[in-house]
Specification:
The structure holds 3 protein chains of 3 kinds. By secondary structure, chain A is an alpha+beta fold. Chain A has 9 helices and 20 strands. In chain A, the strands form 4 sheets. Chain A has a 6-stranded mixed β-sheet with strand order 6-7-8-3-9-10, sandwiched between helices. In chain A, strands 13-12-11-14-20 form a 5-stranded antiparallel β-sheet. Chain A has a 5-stranded antiparallel β-sheet with strand order 15-19-16-17-18, with no helix packed on it. In chain A, a hairpin with a 2-residue loop joins β12 and β13. The radius of gyration of chain A is 25 Å and the shape is elongated. Classes of the chains: A alpha+beta, B mainly alpha, C mainly alpha. Chain B: One of its GO terms (biological process) is transmembrane transport.
Amino acid sequence: MMHQTIKRDGVETIGDPYLCLEGMNKKYGLVEVISNLNLAVRKGELIALLGPSGCGKTTTLRMIAGLIAPTAGRITVGGRDVTQIAPHGRDMGLVFQSYALFPHMTVAKNVAFGLEMRGLSRADIANKVAKALGMVQLEHLAERKPRELSGGQQQRVALARALVIEPSILLLDEPLSNLDAKLRDEMRTQIRDIQQQLGITTVFVTHDQVEALSMCDRIVVMKGGLIEQVGTPHEIYERPATPFVASFVGRTNRVKGKRTADGCIRIGSSMIRSARPAVQDDVMVMVRPHRIHIDWNAASTEQQGETANRMAAVLSRITFVGDVIQYHFDVGGSEFIVEESTKKSQVSRDQGDKAVLSWSVEDTLVFGADQ
Amino acid sequence: MEENPTSWFMRVTVTILFLFLLAPVLLVFPISFSGDQILAFPPSSWSLQWYEALLGNTVMMSAFLTSLGLATVVTVLSLIIAIPASYAIVRLKVTGSEFLFNLFTAPLLLPTIVLGLAILIIFASMGLLATFTGLVIGHLVITLPYALRVLSVSLGNLNLACEEAAASLGAKPLAVFGKVTLPMMAPGIVAATALCFLVSFDEVVITLFLTGPRMTTLPVELFHHVESQADPLVASVSVLLILMTLAVVMIVDRTMGLTKAFMK
Amino acid sequence: MTTATFDMPVGAQKSFGTAGVAVALLLPIALVNAIGFILPVLNLARMSFNEALPGGGIAEALTAANWTGLLHDSFYIELITNSIVVSLGITLATLLVSYPIALYLHRASGAWRTFLTVLVISPLLTSAVVRTYGWIALLAEQGPVANVIASMGFQPPRMMFNTTGVVIGLTEILMPYMILSLMAGFGRLDPKVEEAARTLGATPFRTFWRVILPLTLPGIALGCLLCFVLAISSFITPKLMGGGRVFLLATEIYDQAIVTLNWPLAATLSMLVLIIFGAALAVYSRILRMIEG
């Protein structure tokens, strides 16, 4: 609600680049933690920086906030260069992993802090604080101290405190990682709802692929200070640009293969095909476990179809994971995991059972082995 | 272990040793209520005469007021000087900050008898002997290391993210310090205040070198008194000193817990 | 001397100049440190090479006369030896009376442990003058300790104005330091190790001698170093309980500085104390290496 005016008064609409990082570089001594990072975030977009710890995602966020000075590069917000502006002049709302609530102030005082720094009148401050606390459903706790709140409540205070100043950009640094699993699911929805309601451009740092896939408009997958891929959750999942992305986002089977003269790929004694042609002789083939179909009764793998790959396999282990069952198959010496939802798997299977695995050519991801 | 004879033996030993450790301090209380004219234990009669004598002793009372004023001034100055210094060392992390920290806390490594003599010789040439200013500087030399140490630990333990959050919410550096850093350091500041006050109020050796007949402190006056005549007046002054210490310790304990403040 | 480290926020370097601010913030403490510590100590070191003139004056010329004089004067040789021997004796006595308390505290837990720890620390917060006065009351000729000894049918020894009194008083005064050092060193003494030794059939004495003591050696070394340097430089207790009849380094420094007004000699003796400090530290690190190695 607070952001509707901002959203509508300019010529910008959702889709235009709003926050731009150009040639960002950060070195500590000789160690380069961010190398030539370029990224354009659209207005009103929720974008995730996803990667394992040490990939540079938090460093990138802190550079956007101005808490770390980049070694090189330029940051612009709505065309305005903010690279040399100190954190207090950047007008960005930041939510920390540890929440960083001021322990000596009440919830209301915490939320009011940014408004006081902007010199608003008492009446305005009271009004806006009440609205912000209402938005995160914490009006009744306004006079409590942070230590008297639960983790989830503290998290919402931190969110209200960052949003009440109506920042140009909202920055979230692993905001859900200190919450338990159930609360995390709730907060995901709540953050996404508030973000869409306000239409606020948001950068979200996380190492949790589920958070990134479920909440965000686009995902930036990072590794070792470099961007591996930028895309919508669907693109990242279905068309990973690198083996790292394929294995970091979602689970995947990986097996080595050789390119043959006719463009097929040979794995052991089987031949399979992929949608995209292999670029090298030595390749890494990846298939998502739940995209594989198990045919327990197939006699042979002879009828190789146009759209499906088929391979003979021997069951080696079964793992029950609640809503799914994982079958571990031995496929010519490599392990293939196949997942099926539990209700389907009524027939009990034994170690050593033979089956034919099949999956569509579309779902066959091929990368160079050295990639 | 309860029925173990060694454990029983251990308990008796420890009790006796604790008695040895605490005896001299505990003894001072009954002696201060002595009705005798000379030091004897146990006293042959009880009275408040030595407290009356203390109130009537102008030298002791003026020394007490000097000590009180001196400790207050030294404590306030220690905080004013050490808070910015700890910020520069811990937060701004200037190059060589570790060296500077060691240099500024080094006076504590020196025996006070040596430090006192060294300061005496320099202050004599500056005309600072037996002056309030001289005493203040002399005490600052040993209170500042304590203050710097306690405040640096306190500052180092703060969540830096709170200060970053304040900055991102639009607070300029000075506002961040005043509204977030300083209030969050409160327990450390209380501990530093108590420690500086106690160290200054109880200091004898360095002060012995810097005082004179015109300007003397209570512990120094007490020292001179014991040197000449160890009568029960000393006990009543001692009780006064102990009660002062106790009051300060209780304030700290209320604020942050004794062990936390002194068991670093 | 000051440059910003890498992780400074944007603007910190430019808008208010970290180096400039840091210098301003550190200036007051540096001034006190310079006037009250560095300058006096350097001056003291230099003065140990000046010669005292009759009547309290000091000659400008540098000479090693104080040092050579010191080492050829039998009074000072004896003073130095005596100080070291007495301090070593005090250290040993302090260790013996502190070790059981430290071990007991290490095994205690909860509120009881906190209470006892406060009891150990509280004498530290009490002026040495007050505690020494307490000992004067206890050890006086007709004092309680003498009375107890007499009631047992013995002739009470003189315990005041001699080395015995100084040793007893300083032992008690240094106990808290020793106990805290020992407890710090006891950190690695796991009660399970002790239990293991007992279950393997070791007697309590053997358990102590073969298991507990070796494990607590680093704490013992630290406590002994601390107590030795504190003992050799302590002044209040020897001065008050020695009654002018016990001559130790610290009391001699005070007398030379205040009574005789021979500052160069006092400075030389002070430097000697610092040299003994250095030697003690060297011995300590040597011993620590032996224990750890």
